[in-house]
Protein 1
Amino acid sequence: MSDTPNTAFKVLTADQMTALETDGVFAGAPIDLADGYIHLSTADQLGETLDRHFAGQKNLWLAAVDLEVLGDAVKWEPSRGGQLFPHIYGALPLDAVLAYSELHYEPDGALRLPVTG
């Protein structure tokens, strides 16, 4: 799909981020394993994802994922309100992660996305 972004985001707990760094691959959070794919969100979808699924949680991380590296493992599928979300059918390898950082909000409330060096 040419109108879809090339980068999406995975919200991870601190333990999941450590596992990704240590193992070089992330098989998925419990919800991912139950659903059979790794849930990602675009930058525009990320705020609602955090509000709905991670409200009140601390020590969260964001990983920016290069969808082009994952190729056919990524499927865009309808979810909330018919929006298309990127799903990874398979594991998330560390080499597909462009950047990652602890979840942080700016003083104005905007979410700070991870950036590469």
Protein 2
Amino acid sequence: MNFDYNTTRSHLILSEYGRNVQNMVKYICELPTIEERNKYAQAVIDLMGFLQPHLRDVADFKHKLWDHLHIISGYQIDVESPYPKPLPENAFKRPEPLPYPQRRITYKHYGKTVEGLIEKAMAEQDMERRKVMVQGIANFMKMAYVTWNKDNVSDETIIKDLSYLSGGMLRLDEGVNLAKVEFRAQNPRQNTNNNNRGRNNNNNNNGKNRQNNSNNNNNNRGRNNNKPKY
């Protein structure tokens, strides 16, 4: 008896599609006419999309499937593809490295986004619109401060930092009140204790119910014994 092991089979090019798809693509490459190859290639493309549903969220979903079809065939399949045929050398081409942004952040608890918002607010010519932008930036700064420092922050601190980051160009009106922000840290131990208290209360109630039921049964037995016998 001859056994068919994976080690004796041909190399599986794209394992996520399985060996059956690879055998289908090999069969398509051997078809004599272009009409037959196009027909069966479209059927295999539909099957590949069904096997990889997560690719539907990827841009150019169909384009990627056709590229995979060419790769599985070893770039030998001759079909009329709606997309350009991929080149074998591009499979080994490494992408350009992305440089890590080296930007200095004045106050890290506010982040770089706040500095960008401040620059846009300083470039705004409409004074009414700039006033609204400054108010929103200050509220966001207070929220960011409380998120990272976990302490209450005064409005004076936010106003001072906003003035420093803008070089004194952005200021809030006197007596303005920023949005109230509270940081509520969730204590897992407290939740556990509350859950245990609830369980203990349920257990106590269950115990009381059992005791009451037992007392009622005993009282009923006593009443039955006191009945006259005829």
